[in-house]
Amino acid sequence: MSRDSKSGEWEGNDALKTWVSDRxxxxxxxxxxxxxxYAIGLAKQATSAADVVGKLEEYGFALSDDLHLFxxxxxxxxxxxxxxxxxxxxxxxxGTGNGLGKAMLEDQIxxxxxxxxxxxxxxxxxxxxxxxxxxxxxxxxxxxxxxxIYAHRDSLxxxxxxxxxxxxxxxxxxxxxxxxxxxLHEAGYTKRGKVxxxxxxxxAAMSVAARVSQEMDVKLGHEVGYSIRFEDCTxxxxxxxxxxxxxxxxxxxxEPDLASYSVIMVDEAHERxxxxxxxxxxxxxxxxxxKDIKILISSATPDASKFSDFxxxxxxxxxxxxxxxxxxxxxxxxxxxxxxxxxxTVLQVHLTQSPGDILVFLTGQEEIESAEEILxxxxxxxxxxxxxxxxxxxxxxxPTELQAKIFQPIPIGSRKxxxxxxxxxxxxxxDGINYVIDPGLCKMESYxxxxxxxxxxxxxxxxxxxxxxxxRSGRTGPGKCFRLYTADSYKTKLDDNTPPGIQRTNxxxxxxxxxxxxxxxLLNFDFMDPPSNESLLxxxxxxxxxxALNKVGEVTKVGRQMAEFPLDPMLSKMIVASDKYRxxxxxxxxxxxxxxxxxxxxxxxxxxxxxxxxxxxFHTGNVGDHIALxxxxxxxxxxxxxxxxxxxxxxxVRSMRSARDIRDxxxxxxxxxxxxxxxxxxxxxAIKKAITSxxxxxxxxxxxxxxxxxVKHPRIVHIHPSSGLADNFPRWVVxxxxxxxTKEYMRNVTELKPEWLVEIAPHYYQMKDVEDA
DNA sequence: GAGCACTGC
Length: 773
Fold this sequence. Notes:
Layout: H1 14-28, H2 33-45, H3 49-59, H4 65-77, H5 102-125, H6 128-133, H7 136-146, H8 153-162, E1 165-170, H9 176-186, E2 194-199, H10 202-215, E3 224-228, E4 231-233, E5 240-244, H11 245-254, E6 261-266, H12 274-289, E7 294-299, H13 305-310, E8 316-319, E9 326-331, H14 338-352, E10 357-361, H15 365-380, E11 389-394, H16 400-403, E12 415-420, E13 433-438, E14 441-448, E15 453-460, H17 463-471, E16 479-486, H18 487-493, H19 508-516, H20 533-545, H21 557-564, H22 569-578, H23 584-596, H24 608-616, H25 625-638, H26 643-648, H27 653-672, H28 684-695, E17 699-702, E18 708-710, E19 716-719, E20 732-740, E21 744-751, H29 754-760, H30 767-770
Parallel strand pairs: 1-7, 1-8, 2-5, 2-6, 3-5, 6-7, 9-16, 10-12, 10-13, 11-12, 13-16, 15-20, 19-21
Antiparallel strand pairs: 3-4, 14-15, 17-18, 17-20, 18-19, 20-21
This protein binds one DNA strand through helix 11 and strand 14.
């Protein structure tokens, strides 16, 4: 079966395609269907052969006589010059994309009215004494019936029965996540197969499963279970399975038609996580040949037409939520200093507004810490007595024990202010918030496929995000949201939605997964919002260089081995290569440490000297950052994974535990791909060669004045000051990544011998690349 | 001589 939904498009042009493919093979050594289509597409849109050359050069092809010739030939061979991009059109007479019957709509509207009234009643009905008297289970069942979704049970089931794909819009508090899978179970869907409900986050999958197992009065892991990385709490009995969407993607690699499932419910679809978006495309395809499977797309955004359009006009079913009104205030004029404005607003709310806690959205750790200091200082400066203000902070890198503080009760008569990053927008919910202060900014990652460079920059949030932030104040009562920008800039400067993750990330790993699933032409893959062609082609190019794809774009044996590892392909390649150098034991530790990210070392502001000293102790002998990370892991392991050791060495214990989990998983996977676990503790060269096998495309050589030039696509870069080699200036290095902050910095650097590049990647480097100029 | 939001397999 072919997954190329539009593969018929070029039929009849096979001769042209073959010709283009051959020429591309000659030009760049490999040629996948994507590159063929890309080149033909360029020629179609180009106005001249020179135009084709320009575009190809812009992509990264080296200028040469061959390239010019190719451009001229393809320009003359492509027979037609067209064509406005094909637009998807749908018959959509009423313009709502809603195929539900009128009666059903009315039924919904009626219920929305009812449930709005109910919200007020509910709060006052039950006294604590009464609820105590009831059995816990009875209360649970009663709770189920008071959820907004309850009255929709039958019409919802009917809609699911009648349509293969249904988009469900359920506001927060509607009960969709816990109830719909139970309704499906009660209606008999689980007799045909499991019901999966995917979540973007691990904790959500776990906690929802726990809740549902209580409601159904079964043991967690029996009929109701969850499955997340490192933890599969399911059994043969399991019929309702909550899981992370990434986990379902992994399962898809082993079971491409999801035969053991009868319903897939993709929850929190509006978040548009990379794995959710990939799932959309795959599920749409599965639904085509598995008419018995039901797909539910559940989103909390009112505008679900995009989901509906994508799934061929799937009907939209709306379930009301339970929310309180939120009053939104804008500033009259733009603020000069939003941090200052946020602090002033906190104090104003504290002094003038009725009780209720405050949530402030800031961009990062440093900002939060300085806001905390300023706020403390200002409060101490008040001459007269004011009610106590308890300052709490939360961001993901904050040690767990300090994170817990935001949930602790505070003295009566005092008020809590929580200074938070985006973590409080969706990932965690704090009760008792009545006021939100929103400067309208966040840090967002962007990825430039041309340079392969990531950068993290402060940018304006979207309208959707602003709404989500405001909503955080109206969960337990009416709320207020103070936006530190003008109503006009809200209207004109904020985008409607945050660009989906898939358009902001390095796609190498996604591309390898999709290729492993047998998708032949990724430019035709049905993405809801396609990533740029360039970003897909760069990913293919890298996978070819790594040996994961052959020269016509098919997955190789190495590629299949790599795809088994839940890692960035360069890390997977490093592991696969470690077999040859007999050092897989060391290399999986390094891969685990690298894949944890940059939160291994702990750098408190006031103990920098000690922290730096501790960090450098792992770099003895200028071994490079990769080996240093291995030293950290091994030292920790030698202390029997001691927490105390972590504190003494300024190492974050949470990150180390996560590295251990990943390492254990990788060790298990070695066997699956038939790589022996072998160690060579004293042969650093072997380890470095394995690293080079994964990261050869990230090589750089020393220039004057301590700067470096990357070898393949020349750019000037620098060693990040946190690197152990920052003062060492080795002549040749490989690096894990380049990040753009104040300069272009290479992170995680290791020295190498230039001849290794030619030895390890002869298809990528020639002697002339590494000889002295 | 810097400073990094949030997820996930």
